[in-house]
Amino acid sequence: xxxxxxxxxxxxxxxxxxxxxxxxxxxxxxxxxxxxxxxxxxxxxxxxxxxxxxxxxxxxxxxxxxxxxxxxxxxxxxxxxxxxxxxxxxxxxxxxxxxxxxxxxxxxxxxxxxxxxxxxxxxxxxxxxxxxxxxxxxxxxxxxxxxxxxxxxxxxxxxxxxxxxxxxxxxxxxxxxxxxxxxxxxxxxxxxxxxxxxxxxxxxxxxxx
Length: 209
Prior knowledge:
Layout: H1 4-11, H2 24-41, E1 45-48, E2 51-54, H3 63-74, H4 81-89, H5 92-102, E3 106-113, E4 116-123, H6 126-142, H7 148-160, H8 163-166, H9 174-183, H10 187-208
Antiparallel strand pairs: 1-2, 3-4
């Protein structure tokens, strides 16, 4: 089963070429937001305003989620959502990719290009890689109910600009429906989306100056 950050990883890449659709920093921040969103969905943390509070220190089953929670527990004095987004963004890409490889959703191979050998990764099934995006697009198009992880995914997609891709072939009502379902998220999950959007906005602005 794909977790929230895994779904976001696949949406952030072309499902066939696996080329990134966004700037590296934006993808990393989106993945960091997704990893923190997983903690809310696992009921390990609450987010109020910009502050994170651990409400259940018991380790999640997933190894990466366990590691994320360990970091939060090790620094109880650091409660700023933005600080944690920046921290997890440093290696979120590599960590989520490792989880996808470990779970058999992605494989790594070496490829020779211009006298160099480079490492590339590919999905084990392109249909699985494309499923998070097609699932979101079809349900938003139909105005269908979304499970909480998919609502958070939709929010992070919008926060990072991936909605350009997800909504490309959807009817006009899909975008306002996306905004409506995201605004209905519980406070902690809505803050994860909002704080991620703010961090992405700051990163884009800083890159232009």
